[in-house]
Structure formats: structure tokens, C-alpha cells
Design brief:
By secondary structure, chain A is an alpha+beta fold. Chain A has nine helices and 18 strands. Chains in contact: A-B, A-C, A-D, B-C, B-D, C-D.
Chain lengths: 361, 361, 361, 361
Amino acid sequence: MGNTFGHLFRITTWGESHGDSVGVVVDGCPSRVPIALEDIQRELDRRRPGQSDITTQRKETDRAEILSGVFEGQSLGSPISILVRNEDIRSKDYEHMRTTFRPSHADYTYQAKYGIRNWKGGGRASARETIGRVAAGAIAKKVLAAECGVEIVGYVKQVWTLKADVDPNTVTLAQVEANEVRCPDAKMASKMIERIKEARKDGDSLGGIVEVVARNVPVGLGEPVFDKLEADLGRGILSLPACKGFEVGSGFGGTTMTGSQHNDPFYMDGKRVRTRTNLSGGIQGGISNGEHIVIRAAFKPTATIMKSQETVDEEGHDTTLEGRGRHDPCVLPRAVPMVEAMMSLVLVDHYLMQRAVKGSD
Amino acid sequence: MGNTFGHLFRITTWGESHGDSVGVVVDGCPSRVPIALEDIQRELDRRRPGQSDITTQRKETDRAEILSGVFEGQSLGSPISILVRNEDIRSKDYEHMRTTFRPSHADYTYQAKYGIRNWKGGGRASARETIGRVAAGAIAKKVLAAECGVEIVGYVKQVWTLKADVDPNTVTLAQVEANEVRCPDAKMASKMIERIKEARKDGDSLGGIVEVVARNVPVGLGEPVFDKLEADLGRGILSLPACKGFEVGSGFGGTTMTGSQHNDPFYMDGKRVRTRTNLSGGIQGGISNGEHIVIRAAFKPTATIMKSQETVDEEGHDTTLEGRGRHDPCVLPRAVPMVEAMMSLVLVDHYLMQRAVKGSD
Amino acid sequence: MGNTFGHLFRITTWGESHGDSVGVVVDGCPSRVPIALEDIQRELDRRRPGQSDITTQRKETDRAEILSGVFEGQSLGSPISILVRNEDIRSKDYEHMRTTFRPSHADYTYQAKYGIRNWKGGGRASARETIGRVAAGAIAKKVLAAECGVEIVGYVKQVWTLKADVDPNTVTLAQVEANEVRCPDAKMASKMIERIKEARKDGDSLGGIVEVVARNVPVGLGEPVFDKLEADLGRGILSLPACKGFEVGSGFGGTTMTGSQHNDPFYMDGKRVRTRTNLSGGIQGGISNGEHIVIRAAFKPTATIMKSQETVDEEGHDTTLEGRGRHDPCVLPRAVPMVEAMMSLVLVDHYLMQRAVKGSD
Amino acid sequence: MGNTFGHLFRITTWGESHGDSVGVVVDGCPSRVPIALEDIQRELDRRRPGQSDITTQRKETDRAEILSGVFEGQSLGSPISILVRNEDIRSKDYEHMRTTFRPSHADYTYQAKYGIRNWKGGGRASARETIGRVAAGAIAKKVLAAECGVEIVGYVKQVWTLKADVDPNTVTLAQVEANEVRCPDAKMASKMIERIKEARKDGDSLGGIVEVVARNVPVGLGEPVFDKLEADLGRGILSLPACKGFEVGSGFGGTTMTGSQHNDPFYMDGKRVRTRTNLSGGIQGGISNGEHIVIRAAFKPTATIMKSQETVDEEGHDTTLEGRGRHDPCVLPRAVPMVEAMMSLVLVDHYLMQRAVKGSD
């Protein structure tokens, strides 16, 4: 609840965007999983600002420290505490909005809920909060790889109206990382990059869709009825900043099909039960069926823009907010490791739960 | 977790589709809320099979009994246990699929996960499981109405490719209940009904989209960061059978806009902070901002069809499943009270949480 | 939380003492555990009123119905719902205390907390609430027996000032059930029975201590740091009505020893690590060490007595309450299955957790 | 669960005794509570080793850093992360027990459960883990004081066989802090100090009892039935290292009384309902009744002693462990702030819950 996520593999993130530091405590990680700082740093580097010229230019090295839970390169089974200091805190960038609510940001709702906020930045609603998630997700990926060989690959599927053509069955991490927009459709990637640069010049921002596939998922993950796998995936991913939609398999598109078109026929592939199509997206009745799990997350265009906007202030006056400082014209490339992290966290959590509750044969 | 949903207002549903009965225990309901059996029965009647000629013809009266937690017409603050007996259990309808997995149903995944299943029907994966949710949702609606005047209206927004035009700001329950497809766009409703009847004749099924609006929601509901309001709404609604997608506000559609088009400008409406547009769908930074909350849920076409399908059996042989028995050509009209229930449950849960944690002025 | 107990093996009890019925939903039970109604009924019969002439004479048959979760004699992995109808509801026995608070009962605190109470009996604070616990405990015992051979034996260790001499290493269920006070020290049992009969005649009541031993507990159960095994056992047992104290191993008595007297020396018993003494009570650092787990629960004398008592009424007037109706002179014999149930529930819950989180070799 | 405690006011502690640091994340703290570093440091100083000559001489300054959640001296409503670096890590003190299990420590059970342990000290089972609890408890105390004026005073009630005479109704913090054993019975305190010094000289250790009183507790805290106030208090306190027993009010002593002796008669004190005696310990039916809450916690003698002990090693050989390094002859004085912290945490958690669920008048 609140700042904790997961049932058996639980993470608690903490830290404001412009406070001293941000971090995460990972509880419930099985013992004796090999964990190296580099595993975590590699994922944080994919999330960090300033990694390319199409993201925000906030300068953060986002160096992780592991404070507990790892001993001689292995997890102890005790909580793993990870800390990242904030570095590039330009609070003066925020001075002009100390008492002015930025449209479609969380300034107003936080102020209304808590009666106080750290106006020096986005506080907990900032994308910096996801540092803890991505660090924890790196550990989740290690557990999944070690325990059951699950492989998770995410990529940018769409920016603005530009839709990529990607085969989730075969796409590789290398293809994703081949360009700074993290879109493995090279041709579309170029167009996306152009469009993002244009948005930056305009002081405007773009949204889009991240797609993630999990391959080699064991059959049987998902706890009926409220912890159906898609329900927990949805919750995890919808809790990411700026995420406004989630779908699995055929998703919204599948609503225009008939049952006879949409049902996935079963067949035997040797001794393994398979489906000929995968409109279910690897989940049936809330439980993984062994096919690839395919999900999509919709991100709205980032709320920070460099344009003049109508708004109000804390005293209840209409006013105008001028764009100033730095902005991220498109969060999608950095959202890829975030969505991967949430998927990894949900899968490892359900993997552990399934280990607990399954019949004893 | 598992069969329990909610943090402070918690429901636990139980019961197999073809067992003795189904039910729910509602825990955490505030005391002294007026609760009448009719409040619950009314919602169950909207959910029940056989209520019109475009739904499944399983004959169930779905009569609720309140076994505890209500005394002289008021909630006691103790758990409210509600029971509904199953009546029309035609297990022989299922005899032919005792060992055969129905495509895109949960038969295979349940068998793989649990090594056993009640093959006489869909068990927990059946839509009958939602009886408990709808009964609990009726109580949640009473609490919301009594405590803060929240009003929740759901309706069918789309069936197959047929999309209705509905204004969430003004739509009424009476308009929704005016036709059996629960679509307040009367013209489109007729087309939907025609299309559903055609699907029934074909032995096929249709999916679609339910849209729900919550009006008069207090500012400040939603717990950062993992219990953002949209995250809990998403989890609740994605846990409904056949739901493959969820979105809030602009959702997937908003991904093709720019930030300057998408941001909702603030303005003062007397002493109240309002937004000129509501692409945020009433939630900013995971917290309600006082505007209408608008969400959409995508339902795939029902998996049960009356056509011959390729599949496998428990012994690992390829086989063919013939359509037999009764089928629900379109679950959408009955899904409306289900989605409303989940939204009510999430809102009342967050209402109670907000009452707990808010600063004390 | 509230009316739900357990992390992976979760029970939710419901029902007021003088309402329609009481019951429990058991969620998280592994599938394919053999469960017969008699397993449950046998434990309920040990708990039920009127079973001997030293307990309350309320006449309840306490017949259990299994409404879900069991199919052809085996658990399905879905929630197991169990219902017991209330029968002997003499609400007129309570009429005279409709607005008068019984001393050391929960009448006043419930009224203060909820602003309402079912004055026809003790409501949720009644020992009838434990029916659900005992029924669920019967299932937990079946799981423990099936999965890891754990054996749980409880007995009355003390009534009033009368202390029994019992060896937890060897005591058997047959010895416990050999007399109606459930004390395996036959000589002391006779004295206890005499003393209880005397208390009944006096219209007074007695407290005492229940001791429970769990044998064959696997090494490794218990989750540091807040779900230490003794912490969860303590919580479960202290939540029983009238329980005022809990201790494990040497407990309060151990406080007068020195470390060199109290430490349990390790030695090798073949390939097994054992301790020469067991002052730890089978738990070290919150984790089971394979020795017998021994706990004790202190129960105050039952609050209902047949004597005149000073009290106040709902309107805030001093008044006198006369004893009337039936009373239970000593709850201890019936508390034995209750404490056993809570211990079984905690152990099975931790057994499942340990299965989830242990390293994978 | 695991390393997280609480329902609405939740703490997650992390850190091994001989790792880099230890800490806590406090989630669910209401916003705008004044919090100063000194509030936390003051409590940590009462807990820290080396504070007097009757405790362990490990040299730790235990300086706390607040990393998040506090802004300009007030809580933000976001997670409060607190970190304390370990300083005096003499791992060589532990070298000789790298593969040898210390009797009545957690070495063996941790090794059996996790297959790995940080042998450089007690890891999570060390009393250093309680730093996070005490820091969080300091915040809980601030919330309680600010919101409802609750006052919590703990003291050493017994060391070895030496029992103090203290009146929980009147005892003050100043009286407690007047001597290094934290026993407000000055005469008995001297004897205790003598006895502890003797134990130190002997290389032996002593146990005892801590008693804590909470005064000014509002009526109505406690959630039936599994989160009865005494159940949550018991769980919290029994999760402290070395705690083997817990009791509330009359506790184990009350078992030798009759009901007519034990019941607390109600009377009107002006408009307030009071009880003439307080054998209930301020809790009836699991809910606070407005009288002082009085609990006691039994601590076994510390396991670390400077004597030669029989034990086994990781390879399964019988062996002997020699006493070496530093030891704490009596943890009781330092246990006082620990028990106070757990009581504060439970009370603030229940205070928030009660605010959420109470009826709305």
C-alpha cells in the first residue's frame, strides 16, 4: 500500500525529486541470488536523464549504493536497501512556480491532499521516484533469470501518431538499444527522433506507447481472482507517472472482433500445450498459459512544456505560467526500463506466490 | 490478495459457478450506514443472467441473503456476509468438456496451476464470481452516497465496432436502463441489439467497451505512489473476467496529442479550482482533482461460442470441441454493474484511507 | 487486517453471536488437500457449548456446511466458505442489558467505537466468533499433516491456582480428551473439575492457562523481523477473546535465569542439529529450529458472572447489573481447540511463506 | 509482512548489524507534523550501546540522517527515510564464529533458512535492527502527541529476580531517566545495577521485564477481531529480539483470580465512563476503553556470554565456543525505548485506522 508494492517480493520507494536522495528497500528477495552493483547501474543508466539529446538535460549520474542485504555478491534474504543521491537540483528553476500550480502536474492535488508540498520540483510525483522501481526491477530480473529463465524486452511502440512494426516473438535487447528512442523498427525510429527534436524546438511534448514482452514465463502464475496477472501488471504499470492506459494481448483492439476470431485454439506441440494465436497475450483466467505475455502502456505527453499556460495559484487567483527551465520532450525512451521494471516485479512476485501455493506434487 | 480486494474497505468473494452458492464478506464498512436488502438485490438484478433476451439464458434468480453485519437496517461495523445460492446448475452441459479445455477459457491454466478443477462450469473464473463484487459494490455505493455524495454511472460505450456517443457529464441511470443493452445513445443501442441478436444466431460472441463516470468525487483521493487512484481502479477492473484493457481520461487516444493540446488549464470557478478540459479524467498525480473521473474497460468477446473449435484434452491429445448448451453473445450489458461495482469499491476504499491519513486541520 | 488473518493462508471470519449465522472464508489453501466435513466437525465439537457439564449450557449443535472450495473431497485452491447457523438464540436473556454495559465485556467499547451494537448477545466479541477460526484451523491441520507431518497438541495447563504437570514431549490427544477439562494430568484434572463446579455454584468464573506444543515442525519457519514466528503466534493467540498473555519457551519464567543457564547448547544428533534443552521453545531469532514449539496463553476469568455488579448504562447513569441467564464458569476446556487452531493457522501460513521465499536449491 | 510493520502507519526496517548502515522508511505519516532531527536522535541515544557502564561497550554514535519526507521541519505525507551508518564494526570479533553457531542466537536458524548469512555479527537478528524501530517510534510519538495527547512511559520493572515497585499512573520520564538502569524505583535500581555489574564480571547475562504505560489513549482504538489492540501490541513487542512473553493488564497473574475479583466495575466520572479497577489494562474486547494501557514484555537473558559453551559448526561437528569480544550483560535498560517505540507505532497505526473507519457523526 502507499509506497510499497508487491505481496512477497515487496519494494518500498522513497525520496523527493529535489530532496537529499531517492531510494528503495527490496524485501522478500530470495537468498543466494547473485547481485552485482553493475546489474542495477546498467538499468539505472537506461532510465537516467541526459543519456541522449532527445531526453531531459537534467544532469544526474544516478550512482547507486547498495547499503544492505547483499553479502559477498549474493543476496542474504534480508532487505536490500539502495540509495541514489540527487545531484543536479536547480531549485531556482522552480522558484517561479512556488505558489503556482503547473497544469496537468500533481502540484494542485498534492497541495489539496497534504496541505504542504516540496515545491522545489515534482516531489514524489516526479519521474525520479522511478529510480527505486528500476533498481528493484534489476534485482527482479536477476531472480527471474536465475529461477526460471524469464526474459523481458520492452520498446517504444508508438510516439505521437508514429507506430512501429515490431515482432514481440523475436525482438532483442540489442535491437532496442540500437537507437536512442528505443524503437527496434529502425525506419520508424528515425521519424520518431525527428518528431521529438521538433517537439523540443517547439517547447512542446509528445506521448506514445511502450510495449513489453515477457518470454519463457512458466505456466501458472497469477492468483485468482483479484490478483489476476493482468490486474497486478495493470496496477503496477498504471502507477507509473503519466501512464493513462494499459492493455494485455488484443486489448482495446480485440473489442471489435468476434469470439470465433478472437479465441486462441489450443494444440499439442510435443508434450506442451500451446495456442495457435496469442490474442490472450499469454494470460487466461488471470493465469499465465506459457505463451509470451504482451502488454502495452499508454503515456500521455509530458506535462512540462515551455509554453505559456493558463493556471491558478495557491491563493486562488487566475494567473499565467511561463515555460522556463528544462523539459523532456518525450519520456517514452526512458519509460521503457520503467515498464520493464514493473513487469519484472510483478512476475517475480507471482513466481514466488505460485511456489508457495501450488499443490505439492 | 487472492480473493480479497481493498485496503480498508475489503471484500472477499468465494464460490464456484456450479457449487452450492457464491458470496462475499465485506469488511471495514463504517457503522451506521443504512443498508437494505433491496439495495443489494437491485444491483444483482442488473447483473443477473436471463434478464433480457440478449444475454445468457441461464435461469438464476440470484436472491441475496444478508447473514451478518447489519442490525435493524444499519451496518454494525462488523463484517457483512452475503450469500446467493446457485440454482440453475446444468452440469450435464459441461459433461462433454470434463477433460477438454475450452479455448480462451481458464480451464487449462486452472488445471495447470491447481492440478484439479471443478469441471462442472467455470468455477472461480466464471462471471458468477462477480455476484459478490456487485453485492459489495451496492454497499460501497451506499457509503459513498451517505458520506460524500459521489454518483457513479456506467454504460455500454461500444459493442463490436459500434461506438456510442454519450456525454459523461450529463448521462443518467434512467437513460442507461432505458434499453437492455445499457447504452444511453438510443440510436446506437438499437444497432447494438441487432448485432448481438445476429451474433446469438451465429453462435458467436461480441466484445466492447464499458465507460463509467464518477461525479462529485472529493479532491484528494489516491495514495501515492503505488495506490494512485488510476492504479487501483485499473487493478480492480482488469480483474473482471474478460477484461483486457483499461484507460482513464484521454487514455490510449491521448498518446497522439502534444502536451500543449493535452494539458488541462486550471481556472477559478468561484472558490473552486477547476480545469477547462478534463483529459486527465479527474486524476492528476494519482489523486482526484475534483473533476469527473472517467474510465473505460475493454472486454474481449466472450470465450463461449456455439461453434466447433480446435483444442486439446487433459491427456495431451489434439481434439475438437463442439459448441453446446447456452451462451452469452455479449457480456457488455451485464458488465456495466460489474465495472460500476469495482469503481465504487475503489473509491470508498480511498475515501476511507484519505480520511485516515490527511493532515488534521 | 480487521477480520482477516494470515499472509498466504488467510482466513476471514464473520457473524454475530446472535445473528443468523457465523462462518469463515479460507483463502490460500493449497489445492488437492483431502478435506472432509468430519475433519471440521470434529474440531467444532470440541469447541461447542454444552459439550459437558462444566461449560456453558447454551445448546448449539454447530453443524458446519462447506459452501465452496472443496470438490470431490479435495481442496480446489479456491476459497473455502464454511457456514454454521446460530440456533439457541435466547435474546430475551439479554433484554435486561440492552442499554447496560456488562463489566469487563466489550459492550462499552463497541458502543463507543461504532455508535451501535447488536445488544442481543456479545456480537463479534462473543466466543462464537471463534467457530470460524476453529473450522479454518481444522483445514490448516490437514494441510500441515499432509505437507510436513506437524502435530499439534493443546491442553489445559492451569485453572485458577491449580497447575498441572504435563510433558509436552510426549502428551497425546487421547490423554487430553480423556477428561472434560482437557487436562492430561488426571489427578489435577479432578481438582480442576471440582473447582469449576464450585465456581458454577457460586455464579463465579475462573481463568487459567492453555499450553500447546507443535512437534515435527520443519526448521526455517518464521519471517524476520516483524513476522517472527513468536510474533505471529502471539498476535493470533492474543486476538482470542479473554486472552491477556502469551509466552513462548521459558517465557516470563526465563527472566529470572542467567544467560549461562538459559542458553540451549547445540549438539549433533546424527546429521541433525539439536539442542540439549529447549528454553527457546523451538524458535530462535524468530525462526523455528526443529525442536518442539511450546507456547502458553493466559485467559482471564470469563466476564459473565451470576452476581450483582456495579456498572453504567448508555445514558451515562450509574446502575447495577444483576446476573441472569447462563454462564460459562471456565472457558479453558473450550479454549484448547481455539489456541490449537491459531497455532495451526500461523504454522501453515509460515510453511507456505517459507516455501515461497527459500533459496532454490 | 517481513520487514514491514503496520497497516496505515507502516515502517520498513533494513540493514545488517555489520553492514554499511541500518535504517527505516516510515510510510503513512500524516502531513504537517513537526519533525526535528533531535526528536529522533534523543530516542536513538536512549537505545544506543555504550551509553552507560552497564550496557555493551560497542562504540556507536548512531547519528541519524533524514533523507526524505520532511520539508522545512514538517512531514510531507511522503515516506520518511532515515539512515544510520554503522561505525564500530569489529568483524574480527566474529572471525572465530564464522562457521560456528552461537547457542540461543539466530546463527543456526538463519543459516538453515537462507543458506547464507553475514557471519560478521548478528545480521538482522542483532539489536541494531531496532534502530529503525526506535527512530520510527520517535515520529510516532510526535504524531500521537500532536493528534491526541497520548503519553507513553516505559521502565524496567524487573531484572533477574529483582522486582521494582512502580505506579504506572504517576511514573514520569524524568524518574525513569534518573538512573542508568531506567528503573524508577530508586532503591531497587541500585540493586539491579549491582547485580548487572556482577553479571558482567561473571561474563554472564540477565533477563527481565519492561513495563510500559500509555496514558490519555482515546476510547475506540483497536480493530476487531484479529487486530485487537492487545494482539497488535503483542505482535509488535514479541518481534523484538530476545522477547519471550507479553501480557496486558492482569496478564498471567490474572489467571488465578475469579471473575468477581477480576471484572472492572464501571462508574460515571462526570460525563466520562471509567472503571474502578484496571485489570483489563485499558483494553476491553480488543478496543481501548480510555483507561491507561499497561503492558509487560519478558526478555530472556542475552545470548552472548563470555563463557565456554557446547555447540556445533556448519559442517555438522560438535565443538566448543569460547566467549570473546564484548557483551551486554543486561539489555533491559536499552529495551525500554524499543518497547516504547513498538507501543507508539501500534497506537498511532490504530489511531489512523480508527479515524478512517469510525461512523461519521
